[in-house]
């Protein structure tokens, strides 16, 4: 007969509401008899959710009111030590939410109290119970003893999405912060997975920006010699991936998926694991698949009951000594970082020279400089000379242009006169010979740029005042690998321009507050030059589809930022044939670059082509979700028939690109981008 243990819960926050309570209800070996929370609102919630349980305001009250076998401590971390000590002193077993404590000293006190009381102290590190992580652990354990493993562990989530009642999440002073919210999971999981303690840690970078954004990168060395690189972040979106690599094979685990393959195909497996995790989250959201996080909590409670019964289980909860080991390492990282500002931020170089300087210290626009520029602006032009001249003029009139250079890549027909402004000393003209298509032209310019940052703008755009300064200042002062502008239409209401605007740049039309993001405007964003050079020869194909380029950067743990203070006005195609052709050609390059960059085998290419018919509806749903004001929503509704037509044009392009690659069609796309007429209101449709 199964023992039914009497349980008290202290703290009724989100983790109890979303995971612990449903997990306990799924088990027959637990009975919740008492609940404590200082908040009247949360006590009212608990009374409605757990009929028959005594609902009170403190741990001491429920200890006095009901006989308990164990308590779950799920209060904010600053209170964990005192609550655990009180429960253990009363002779009650304890399961405490992570982090066990906020310091090594407190963790030691809690472990010692459990030993004196002869009671169990267990810590809720639920990654030990994820099926995919268990599979990864078993596969590594079954490998030859001579194999040497390196590991890469990324864990990132958005603080505001959790919406904690205690307000501690993401607040260092409140017992939160990325070390206690995320790094504790990583350090415990690494030691558990290898069966070997983490011997030492070393911080490689740290950044703490706006409230709710914090990032630490660190290296961990295990006692068995395993090396691990870790990224713990509070930022945008949810990302979790553990990668283990031996000499000839690679293993990937996320909370929802486990994949194994050859090391040479690691890029494809990494991308496949990331996409599968995204799909599984959607399936879980619509209750089409069990939530793997909830499954891990159910298994946790099974393991805790087994520990009280004295029964063995395949996986065990972390105990007090495990927690002491984790918090020793957290204290080491905290000491390296210093008092939240002492450690250099990711990519920090101090104040940007492109910020406003006194007039007496600024160099005249157009004058040469012996110092290397901070930013290199790359402009690729074709046969539409008047349009390209206006784009160049808008760049040369930017505030801060004296600390930049312009690389003008001219792919126009031989015999064209030089563009007005190209004679200025800060403009370098690169000939189009051997650079016939867009990707190689932009990659060549990146290789010949001298600035730390490269800023791209299409020749059918106009840079608005403050564009350059806003982009480069944001890159210079933050941990961002890429920064994108707000995009407005230069020819609204002209033919099919509104439909093209919604499809190409709809999510960047609305003026929003600056924010971390998962996507930047294609062909018109700024990047750290070294991050692009690190991509090597594939940079040429990635430049055919900036979205794939951005995915690659994010797969490497890089971060992107949306800067609405930088604005460009974009000319869109205006005729139906022009718009359809543009969507078709672009998405050939997009799907081809995606398949080539991530090493898709033929079955995946064919499957993607077959499934591409659902892409228009996925893209349309994203466009609707990204619409944040009534004006943009109205424009989207008015242009909906054209939007759907163009979306299906893109589907055909994606199917072709996935199967056959971009090939020679890259030249046709380049010709389209640089030479297609895009008239403003009142202009005639000029010839190509």
3D architecture notes:
The structure is a single chain. Strand 15 (375-381), helix 12 and strand 16 form a beta-alpha-beta unit. It is built from 24 helices and 23 strands. Residues 340-366 have low confidence and may be disordered. The strands form three sheets. Strands 15, 16, 17, 18, 19, 20, 21, 22 and 23 form a nine-stranded mixed sheet that branches. The chain has a seven-stranded mixed sheet with strand order 3-2-1-4-5-6-14, with helices on both faces. Strands 8-9-10-7-11-12-13 form a seven-stranded mixed sheet, sandwiched between helices. The longest helix is centred in the last third of the chain and has 22 residues, at 576-597. Helix 1 packs across helix 10 and helix 19 crosses helix 24. The chain is of the alpha/beta class. The protein is 42% helix and 20% strand. The chain starts with a strand and ends in a 13-residue tail after the last helix. It is elongated and about 90 Å long.
């Amino acid at each position: 007969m199964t023992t039914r243990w009497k349980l008290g819960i202290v703290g009724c926050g989100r983790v109890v509401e979303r995971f612990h309570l449903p997990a306990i209800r799924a088990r027959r070996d637990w009975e919740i008899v008492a609940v404590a929370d200082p908040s009247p609102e949360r006590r009212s919630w608990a009374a409605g959710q757990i009929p028959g349980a005594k609902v009170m305001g403190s741990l001491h009250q429920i200890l006095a009111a009901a006989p308990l076998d164990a308590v779950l401590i799920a209060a904010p971390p600053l209170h964990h030590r005192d609550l655990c000590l009180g429960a253990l002193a009363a002779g009650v077993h304890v399961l405490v939410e992570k982090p066990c404590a906020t310091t090594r000293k407190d963790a030691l006190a809690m472990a010692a109290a459990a030993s004196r009381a002869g009671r169990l102290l267990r810590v809720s590190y639920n990654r030990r119970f994820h099926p995919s992580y268990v599979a990864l652990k078993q596969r590594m354990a079954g490998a030859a003893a001579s194999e040497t493993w390196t590991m890469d562990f990324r864990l990132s989530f958005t603080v505001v999405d959790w919406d904690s009642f205690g307000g501690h999440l993401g607040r260092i002073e409140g017992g939160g912060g990325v070390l206690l919210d995320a790094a504790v999971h990583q350090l415990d999981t690494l030691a558990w997975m290898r069966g070997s303690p983490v011997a030492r840690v070393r911080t490689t970078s740290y950044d703490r920006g706006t409230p709710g954004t914090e990032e630490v990168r660190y290296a961990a060395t295990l006692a068995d010699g395993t090396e691990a690189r870790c990224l713990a972040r509070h930022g945008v979106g949810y990302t979790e991936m553990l990668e283990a690599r031996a000499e000839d094979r690679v293993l990937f685990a996320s909370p929802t998926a486990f994949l194994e393959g050859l090391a040479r195909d690691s890029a494809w497996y990494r991308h496949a694991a990331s996409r599968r995790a995204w799909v599984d989250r959607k399936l879980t959201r619509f209750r089409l698949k069990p939530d793997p996080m909830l499954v891990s909590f159910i298994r946790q409670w099974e393991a805790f009951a087994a520990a009280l019964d004295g029964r063995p289980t395949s996986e065990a909860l972390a105990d007090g000594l495990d927690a002491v080991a984790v918090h020793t390492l957290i204290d080491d990282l905290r000491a390296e970082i210093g008092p939240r500002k002492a450690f250099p931020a990711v990519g920090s170089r101090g104040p940007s020279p492109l910020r406003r300087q006194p007039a007496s210290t600024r160099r005249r626009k157009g004058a040469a400089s012996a110092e290397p520029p901070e930013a290199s602006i790359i402009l690729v032009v074709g046969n539409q000379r008047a349009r390209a001249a206006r784009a160049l003029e808008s760049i040369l009139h930017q505030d801060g242009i004296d600390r930049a250079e312009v690389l003008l890549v001219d792919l126009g027909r031989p015999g064209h006169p030089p563009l007005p402004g190209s004679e200025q000393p800060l403009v370098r003209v690169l000939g189009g010979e051997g650079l016939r298509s867009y990707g190689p032209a932009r990659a060549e310019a990146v290789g010949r740029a001298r600035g730390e940052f490269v800023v791209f703008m299409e020749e059918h755009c106009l840079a608005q005042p403050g564009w350059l300064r806003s982009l480069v200042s944001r890159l210079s002062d933050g941990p961002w690998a890429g920064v994108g502008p707000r995009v407005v239409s230069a020819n609204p209401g002209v033919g099919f321009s509104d439909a093209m605007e919604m499809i190409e740049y709809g999510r960047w039309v609305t003026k929003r507050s600056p924010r971390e993001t998962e996507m930047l405007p294609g062909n018109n964003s700024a990047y750290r030059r070294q991050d692009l050079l690190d991509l090597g020869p594939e940079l040429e194909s990635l430049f055919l589809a900036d979205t794939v380029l951005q995915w690659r950067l994010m797969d490497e743990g890089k971060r992107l930022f949306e800067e609405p203070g930088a604005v460009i006005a974009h000319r869109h195609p205006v005729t139906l044939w022009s718009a359809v052709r543009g969507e078709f050609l672009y998405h050939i390059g997009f799907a081809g670059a995606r398949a080539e960059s991530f090493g898709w085998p033929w079955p995946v290419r064919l499957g993607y082509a077959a499934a591409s018919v659902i892409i228009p509806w996925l893209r349309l749903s994203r466009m609707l979700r990204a619409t944040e004001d009534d004006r943009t929503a109205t424009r989207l509704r008015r242009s909906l028939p054209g939007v759907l037509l163009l979306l299906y044009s893109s589907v055909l392009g994606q199917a072709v690109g996935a199967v056959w690659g971009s090939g020679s069609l890259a030249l046709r796309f380049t010709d389209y981008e640089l030479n297609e007429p895009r008239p403003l209101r009142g202009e005639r449709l000029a010839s190509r």
